[in-house]
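DM from R.C. (forwarded with permission)

"hey, sorry to bug you on a friday — could you get me a structure for this? deadline for the figure draft is monday and I only need the backbone to look sensible"
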Amino acid sequence: MSVVVRRTNTFAVRPLSAEDEQLLRDLLDASASLWNELTYERRQNFFDGDSVWDTADYRKQYVGVLGSATAQQIIRKNSEAWRSFFAAQEDGEDTAPPGYWGNEGDGREFRTYIRNDQYTLETGERSRLEIPVGQDLKDEYGLGYHDRLCLEVAGEPKWDGDQGRLELYYDEVDDTFRAFQPVTVPDSRQDSPLASEEAALDVGANNLVACTTTTGQQYLYEGRDLFARFRETTEEIARLQSRLRERRYSSRRIRRLYRKRTRRRDHAQDALVRELMERLYDEGVATVYVGDLTDILSEHWSAEVNEKTHQFWAYRAFIDRLATTAEEYGIRVEVKSEAYTTAECPVCGERDDTDRNGDVFRCPCGYEGHADLDASRTFLERQAGTNLEVGSMARPVRLTWDDHTWSELSRSPERARPNEERTNQSTGDGKLASVGTA
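My reply, with the result:
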């Protein structure tokens, strides 16, 4: 029996003129308004103990702007969200009912859904996307009765199959319109790694991901600048909250800052996962091990550590994102315990007397290396059941975020001779002597 799987093509979308951009914004804004009105009524019904399905006919109210098919898709998507909420409740999960796409005062989240038979997407030399528009918008912007809004598309489809419902949204952080096209493809057509190599990830906030592969390659995605910006926004939110009048807990500006902070983080993490998976796929990695941070995510005495693990890092959401993207490449993700990996020397196995200072890991045996990269290597050796020779690792590839892409730094100063075992510089009493840079 043939098995089909769902995959997603992602594109950047560009209006062809300022007028087309305003038309698109009006369309997305009306979609958000429809979602919010329907959500409000259903939430009121839910909290009053009434049926959430007994609502007004919003399709008729929005058909002039969105068109009948698009209005129907927004309503259907909203119903799917409520069904998922009730299913989670039945499973005993403590979850909130569906929320709003922003609001009119603070700014709505620009988003819409187009039925699979209502849009045309062509890629190649003249890539384009055509979507339907309600008659009221056609009249306002001078479109003909049969005309649709034509948009330029950037990007090549990774998957070719039966197209599903298109999602269009405006990425406020990147100032870009994006389209997500789900497609169904036969299971036999999934990407599969070129070999059966393995990789392990050490997840953190100072360095978002440190990765080691059984091919001897290492990658380091730096996160300090990202967290610094996250914390600057957090401090600005706190400053604004301190100036609120009594019994007020938020404001339009505070809500916008919260939303911008979250979207900036999610954008960087989405791009990280995609960039990393492409690298691992090219190396033939079939399995990725990632540490189980359940215990670490319990409350920590340090306010900064709490902020990093709970708010900035959003570990559980990251793991879901990692697994979903890895599936597209035929890569399996396994969550395993990484206990003591950050304290264990990769050369002699010492745990108790090792020391970490920032990114630097030192052992009394004389070894010095990058703490997170060494942790990912130790983690990989445990899971893969193999030893990676200290001198066999390639120079780490260090990457930094510039608000749009992850780019390689020109040099990796962690080691002049990567993972090289140093001469024993410990003193006779076992204490670490001064270690110079090799």
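R.C.: lifesaver. Residues 35 and 78 are 7 Å apart (CA to CA).
me: no worries. The first helix runs from residue 18 to 47.
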